[in-house]
Amino acid sequence: MSEPIQGSLRPAVTERDHTLGPAGAPITLVEYGDYQCPHCFRAHPIVKSIQKQLGDQLRFVFRNFPLAEVHPEAMHAAEAAESVAANAGEKAYWSMHDSIYKHQQDSWDALDDQHLVRYAVSAGADPKQVQRDLSEETFTARVRTEFLGGVRSGVNGTPTFFINGQRYEGDWSQVPVFVAALRNV
Amino acid sequence: MNQAAGHETSSILRAGDRAPDFTLHTTPDQQVSLADFAGKTVILAFYPADWSPVCGDQMALYNEIRPEFRKHHAELLGISVDGAWCHAAFADARKLHFPLLADFEPKGAVARAYGAYRHQEGHSERTLFVIDGSGIIRWSYLSPVGVNPGADGILQALEDMAAESPEKSA
Lengths: 185, 170
Known about the structure:
The complex is a heterodimer.
Chain A: E1 18-20, E2 27-33, H1 38-54, E3 58-64, H2 74-88, H3 90-103, H4 113-123, H5 127-135, H6 140-152, E4 160-163, E5 166-167, H7 175-183
Parallel strand pairs in A: 2-3
Antiparallel strand pairs in A: 1-3, 2-4, 4-5
Chain B: E1 23-27, E2 30-33, E3 41-46, H1 58-64, H2 66-71, E4 74-80, H3 84-94, E5 100-102, H4 109-113, E6 117-118, E7 123-124, E8 126-131, E9 137-143, H5 152-164
Parallel strand pairs in B: 3-4, 4-5
Antiparallel strand pairs in B: 1-2, 3-8, 6-7, 8-9
């Protein structure tokens, strides 16, 4: 990749990341997202649809980019998702991820700790462990590290997408446009 | 992100130039001067206007990165032509924890001094300056006005400065 630093993914995708799809897939889509961001809420079903269309051609990676001052519940949502991954595995993580976005707009308190724990239980995680991880800030540093990795990759808001390490500047809100860009790498 | 990535139309002040001093209101009854920060690194972020859309907002992003700026002993100052009351409402709504300077009267005078004023539109360019403790600009960047430049360039500039004078770094 000979692009300038701006718009290049700095921390490469590793086994620490949460990924969906084959590791050897020709296309890797990385999303930097915030669980309380309404634009990410809109992007969630779009990514699902893209995954369905591209199948094994695509590996999807989600990284946390919570803007915690404007979205006060985004940090705990991200930490709860990490807790679910650590204590119930990757499958549970993705179930948690989907639940958070699915419910984001349900009510004013849809992302408070009580609701987050409820989603974690549905995903198959131990509620006590999730609560403990939230109160002990077990995953705060990991989320912050992801956030800063995003900053150094030029992420300036959410959602920001990278296709095979290059920032996607096009329109993500139209599935056909996004799919065409992904197929074009 | 580097200087070459910015467009060259506005002739903003560059690395090596002395940063023009200023005294501006941050709140209706408080003023700050660049000279108040002598001995400290200052990040001066000109932006066109308060109240741009939330999730892609440049000031909201910098607000989250204050701990990293602090590690480099750098003070962040936002600056636009909006008045102090407007800034107060904006900072309150977005929970911004750093000063916003009102380049309001005479309008855009500081932006002009830094070569960062858009005369036709009547607001500043989206421009970043990193100024060292002796008042010398060490890095500047002009972003297309509609593009949030993010923070990578600022952090890189702060790291480069720390590498040049390691005894001052955290």
